[in-house]
Amino acid sequence: MNIGILALQGDYVKHARAVEKLGHTSICLKEADTLQKCDKLIIPGGESTAIIRLIEKLKLRPALLEFAAEHAVMGTCAGLILLSKIPGNLPFPSLGLIDIEVERNAYGRQIDSFIDTVQITLNGQEQDFEGVFIRAPKIKKYAETVEILGYHGTDVVMAQDKNILVCSFHPELTNDLRIHDFFISSVD
Ligand code: GLN
Known about the structure:
Layout: E1 2-6, H1 12-21, E2 25-29, E3 40-43, H2 48-57, H3 61-68, E4 72-76, H4 78-83, E5 84-86, E6 98-103, E7 114-122, E8 125-133, E9 138-142, E10 147-152, E11 155-161, E12 164-167, H5 178-186
Parallel strand pairs: 1-2, 1-3, 3-4, 4-12, 5-6
Antiparallel strand pairs: 6-9, 7-8, 7-10, 10-11, 11-12
Bound molecules: glutamine (GLN).
Protein backbone atom coordinates (compact mmCIF):
# COMPACT_ATOMS: atom_id res chain seq x y z
CA MET A 1 0.00 0.00 0.00
CA ASN A 2 1.09 3.61 -0.50
CA ILE A 3 1.08 5.41 2.83
CA GLY A 4 1.31 9.19 2.62
CA ILE A 5 3.01 11.03 5.45
CA LEU A 6 2.44 14.75 5.84
CA ALA A 7 6.01 16.07 5.77
CA LEU A 8 5.65 19.75 6.65
CA GLN A 9 7.35 19.54 10.05
CA GLY A 10 7.96 16.97 12.77
CA ASP A 11 9.13 13.36 12.86
CA TYR A 12 7.69 12.20 9.54
CA VAL A 13 10.88 10.30 8.62
CA LYS A 14 10.34 7.96 11.59
CA HIS A 15 6.85 7.14 10.34
CA ALA A 16 8.25 6.52 6.87
CA ARG A 17 10.73 3.99 8.33
CA ALA A 18 7.94 2.18 10.22
CA VAL A 19 5.80 1.99 7.06
CA GLU A 20 8.75 0.65 5.01
CA LYS A 21 9.61 -1.94 7.67
CA LEU A 22 6.09 -3.29 7.30
CA GLY A 23 6.71 -3.75 3.57
CA HIS A 24 4.64 -0.78 2.37
CA THR A 25 5.65 2.29 0.41
CA SER A 26 5.95 5.59 2.26
CA ILE A 27 5.32 8.86 0.43
CA CYS A 28 6.44 11.96 2.35
CA LEU A 29 4.36 14.78 0.92
CA LYS A 30 4.14 18.54 1.07
CA GLU A 31 1.67 19.15 -1.74
CA ALA A 32 -1.95 18.28 -2.40
CA ASP A 33 -1.41 16.51 -5.74
CA THR A 34 0.68 13.76 -4.15
CA LEU A 35 -2.31 12.70 -2.05
CA GLN A 36 -3.76 11.17 -5.19
CA LYS A 37 -1.08 8.47 -5.06
CA CYS A 38 -1.80 7.62 -1.41
CA ASP A 39 -4.08 4.98 0.07
CA LYS A 40 -3.83 6.28 3.65
CA LEU A 41 -2.26 9.26 5.39
CA ILE A 42 -0.27 9.77 8.59
CA ILE A 43 0.02 13.17 10.28
CA PRO A 44 3.14 13.00 12.46
CA GLY A 45 4.14 14.41 15.81
CA GLY A 46 5.94 17.71 15.89
CA GLU A 47 4.53 21.11 16.67
CA SER A 48 0.86 21.47 15.85
CA THR A 49 0.98 25.27 15.61
CA ALA A 50 3.79 25.07 13.02
CA ILE A 51 2.04 22.33 11.03
CA ILE A 52 -1.33 24.12 10.95
CA ARG A 53 0.37 27.35 9.83
CA LEU A 54 2.00 25.47 6.95
CA ILE A 55 -1.28 23.75 6.06
CA GLU A 56 -2.84 27.22 5.73
CA LYS A 57 0.11 28.74 3.91
CA LEU A 58 0.28 25.91 1.39
CA LYS A 59 -3.53 25.82 1.12
CA LEU A 60 -3.63 22.12 1.89
CA ARG A 61 -6.79 22.12 4.03
CA PRO A 62 -9.36 21.33 1.28
CA ALA A 63 -7.25 18.50 -0.13
CA LEU A 64 -6.69 16.98 3.33
CA LEU A 65 -10.41 17.11 4.14
CA GLU A 66 -11.31 15.64 0.77
CA PHE A 67 -8.78 12.84 1.28
CA ALA A 68 -10.08 12.07 4.79
CA ALA A 69 -13.64 11.82 3.49
CA GLU A 70 -12.64 8.64 1.66
CA HIS A 71 -9.45 7.33 3.24
CA ALA A 72 -7.99 6.41 6.62
CA VAL A 73 -5.87 8.97 8.47
CA MET A 74 -3.71 8.45 11.57
CA GLY A 75 -2.40 11.28 13.74
CA THR A 76 0.21 10.93 16.46
CA CYS A 77 0.70 13.60 19.13
CA ALA A 78 0.65 16.90 17.17
CA GLY A 79 -1.19 14.89 14.48
CA LEU A 80 -3.86 14.00 17.06
CA ILE A 81 -4.22 17.69 17.94
CA LEU A 82 -4.64 18.64 14.27
CA LEU A 83 -7.28 15.95 13.67
CA SER A 84 -9.29 16.79 16.81
CA LYS A 85 -12.48 18.83 16.78
CA ILE A 86 -11.52 20.89 19.85
CA PRO A 87 -7.72 21.29 19.89
CA GLY A 88 -7.20 24.09 22.38
CA ASN A 89 -5.37 27.17 21.27
CA LEU A 90 -4.19 26.93 17.64
CA PRO A 91 -3.61 29.88 15.29
CA PHE A 92 -6.02 28.36 12.74
CA PRO A 93 -8.92 25.90 13.06
CA SER A 94 -7.94 22.24 13.36
CA LEU A 95 -9.07 19.72 10.74
CA GLY A 96 -11.88 18.61 13.08
CA LEU A 97 -12.07 15.04 11.83
CA ILE A 98 -12.53 13.30 15.18
CA ASP A 99 -14.90 14.54 17.86
CA ILE A 100 -12.49 14.79 20.78
CA GLU A 101 -11.48 17.64 23.03
CA VAL A 102 -7.77 17.88 23.64
CA GLU A 103 -5.58 19.49 26.25
CA ARG A 104 -2.23 20.31 24.66
CA ASN A 105 1.02 19.82 26.59
CA ALA A 106 -1.05 18.15 29.29
CA TYR A 107 1.94 16.36 30.83
CA GLY A 108 4.18 19.44 30.96
CA ARG A 109 7.15 20.61 28.94
CA GLN A 110 9.81 18.84 26.87
CA ILE A 111 11.79 18.13 30.05
CA ASP A 112 8.79 16.24 31.44
CA SER A 113 8.85 13.75 28.54
CA PHE A 114 8.60 10.13 29.64
CA ILE A 115 8.22 6.54 28.51
CA ASP A 116 5.65 4.36 30.23
CA THR A 117 3.51 1.36 29.48
CA VAL A 118 0.11 2.07 27.97
CA GLN A 119 -2.74 -0.41 27.58
CA ILE A 120 -4.07 -0.57 24.05
CA THR A 121 -6.70 -2.67 22.28
CA LEU A 122 -6.00 -3.70 18.70
CA ASN A 123 -8.56 -5.85 16.89
CA GLY A 124 -10.20 -6.65 20.22
CA GLN A 125 -6.92 -7.81 21.82
CA GLU A 126 -5.78 -5.94 24.91
CA GLN A 127 -2.03 -5.51 25.04
CA ASP A 128 0.74 -3.40 26.53
CA PHE A 129 2.70 -0.93 24.41
CA GLU A 130 5.66 1.30 25.20
CA GLY A 131 4.23 4.83 25.15
CA VAL A 132 6.70 7.60 24.34
CA PHE A 133 5.18 10.88 25.57
CA ILE A 134 6.78 14.16 24.43
CA ARG A 135 4.82 17.31 25.35
CA ALA A 136 1.87 15.08 24.73
CA PRO A 137 -1.79 16.03 24.60
CA LYS A 138 -4.54 14.35 26.64
CA ILE A 139 -7.96 13.50 25.28
CA LYS A 140 -10.22 15.21 27.83
CA LYS A 141 -13.63 14.55 26.29
CA TYR A 142 -14.93 12.48 23.42
CA ALA A 143 -18.19 11.91 21.60
CA GLU A 144 -20.13 8.65 21.81
CA THR A 145 -19.02 7.67 18.33
CA VAL A 146 -15.39 7.62 19.42
CA GLU A 147 -13.95 4.24 20.38
CA ILE A 148 -11.30 4.36 23.09
CA LEU A 149 -8.37 2.12 22.18
CA GLY A 150 -5.72 3.14 24.67
CA TYR A 151 -5.20 4.22 28.25
CA HIS A 152 -2.27 5.41 30.30
CA GLY A 153 -3.62 4.78 33.77
CA THR A 154 -7.01 6.46 33.54
CA ASP A 155 -5.98 8.92 30.80
CA VAL A 156 -7.31 8.28 27.31
CA VAL A 157 -4.33 8.20 24.94
CA MET A 158 -5.56 6.41 21.82
CA ALA A 159 -8.89 6.57 20.01
CA GLN A 160 -10.61 5.78 16.75
CA ASP A 161 -13.69 7.02 14.99
CA LYS A 162 -14.23 5.00 11.83
CA ASN A 163 -11.39 5.95 9.46
CA ILE A 164 -9.60 8.29 11.88
CA LEU A 165 -7.06 6.89 14.37
CA VAL A 166 -5.22 9.07 16.89
CA CYS A 167 -2.70 8.52 19.66
CA SER A 168 -1.10 11.01 21.98
CA PHE A 169 2.18 9.09 22.23
CA HIS A 170 4.73 8.24 19.51
CA PRO A 171 4.64 4.63 18.23
CA GLU A 172 7.04 5.73 15.46
CA LEU A 173 9.74 6.33 18.08
CA THR A 174 9.77 2.67 19.15
CA ASN A 175 10.75 -0.36 17.09
CA ASP A 176 7.29 -1.76 17.70
CA LEU A 177 5.22 -1.79 14.53
CA ARG A 178 1.90 -3.03 15.96
CA ILE A 179 0.06 0.30 15.82
CA HIS A 180 1.26 1.11 12.29
CA ASP A 181 0.34 -2.41 11.23
CA PHE A 182 -3.13 -2.01 12.78
CA PHE A 183 -3.62 1.34 11.02
CA ILE A 184 -2.53 0.00 7.65
CA SER A 185 -4.36 -3.32 7.78
CA SER A 186 -7.47 -2.62 9.89
CA VAL A 187 -8.48 1.08 9.77
CA ASP A 188 -10.64 2.00 6.78
N1 GLN B 1 3.03 19.75 22.22
C1 GLN B 1 3.06 19.64 20.80
C2 GLN B 1 1.92 20.44 20.18
O1 GLN B 1 1.17 21.04 20.87
C3 GLN B 1 2.95 18.19 20.34
C4 GLN B 1 4.20 17.46 20.73
C5 GLN B 1 4.51 16.27 19.88
O2 GLN B 1 3.99 16.08 18.78
N2 GLN B 1 5.43 15.49 20.38
O3 GLN B 1 1.81 20.47 19.00
